[in-house]
Amino acid sequence: MALSGGSTALRSIKVGLLVLLLGVGGLLGWYSFRSFFRASSLPLPFYSSEDFTAEWIEPTDPRSARIHRIAPFSLRNQSGELVTNASLHGKVYVANFFFTGCPGICPKMATNLLRIQTAFSTDDDVVLVSHSVMPDKDSEKVLRTYASDHGVVSGKWHLLTGDKESIYTLARRSYFAEKQPGFIKNSSEFLHTENMLLIDRHGRIRGIYNATLPVDADRAIEDIRLLKRER
After folding, report:
1. Which residues of the chain have pLDDT under 70?
2. What does each C-alpha distance from 149 to 146, 205, 213 come to in angstroms?
3. Which of 125, 129, 89 is nearest to 113 (CA)?
């Protein structure tokens, strides 16, 4: 009886190890599968609504003409230069919203955006755009100091200030920065979000990420490389 019990226990251990190995193998296979397609021709989706519903639309699809684009804007960066959607046309960029005195999520966002800046430091076709949600406090001078303190490279990473109403409307109605809950808010309600958005060469939203997470910064880097292969 003891021998039979020992054999049963041994058999259970073997079955458990087999299940574990199959599970690990399956997981590795899934990651390889995902990596293969993300590295090949699988396109990034488009986001045209505040609920961030992903849509995969071919250029020949009649819907392609109606894909949401970032509305026209005109703001100043930390160097006093005018930055517009027209000046960003043809570039892939990551957009987010912050303020220099933010003690909570903003330092984490800055750290992860710095990862993206470093990854594309020599690529002029990729830029970062951070909009201040407290433009009355964040003057060009304040933004220059912040840029110097945080390793922000002028020309590569734009810290934008300007009219508060314009920035809040742009954030909520154009970038959908706070998703659906923020879409109907106005500039009297404070804007605070950890989202960063990936925008393609034509001003269309192609990715949404949590800017406080290093893993999402790495995912954005991967998606930028994928997006750069599009024309």
Report:
1. 1-42, 180-188
2. 5, 30, 21
3. 129
What secondary structure letter does DSSP report for 161?
Answer: B
Side chain identity, residue 14: K
Q: Identify the pLDDT of residue 18.
A: 47
Same domain, 164 and 81: yes
**Shared-domain flag, residues 135 and 30:** no
Q: How many other CB atoms sit within 10 Å of the CB of residue 38?
A: 14
Report the alpha-carbon angle 215-218-222, nearest 5.
135
Of 176, 217, 190, nearest to 102 by C-alpha is 190
The whole-number pLDDT of residue 3 equals 46
- Domain hosting residue 31, numbered range: 1-42
pTM for this structure? 0.80
Task: Among 11, 27, 42, identify where a domain stops.
Answer: 42
- DSSP alpha helix (H) spans, 40-105: 85-88
> Distance between CA atoms of 87 and 90, rounded to whole angstroms?
8
CB 95 within 8 A of CB 127: no
Cα gap 55→46, rounded to integer Å: 5
Name residues whose C-beta falls within 8 Å of residue 62's C-beta, 6 or more positions apart in sequence: none
Nearest to 46 by CA among 197, 196, 178, 170: 197
* Integer Cα distance of 165 and 25 in angstroms: 53
Q: Residue 9: its pLDDT value, please?
A: 54
Q: Are residues 75 and 6 in the same domain?
A: no
Pairwise CA distance, residues 212 & 231, whole Å: 30
Output the six-digit token pair for 56. Answer: 């995969």
End-to-end CA separation in angstroms for the chain: 72
Closest C-alpha among 200, 213, 189 to residue 127: 200
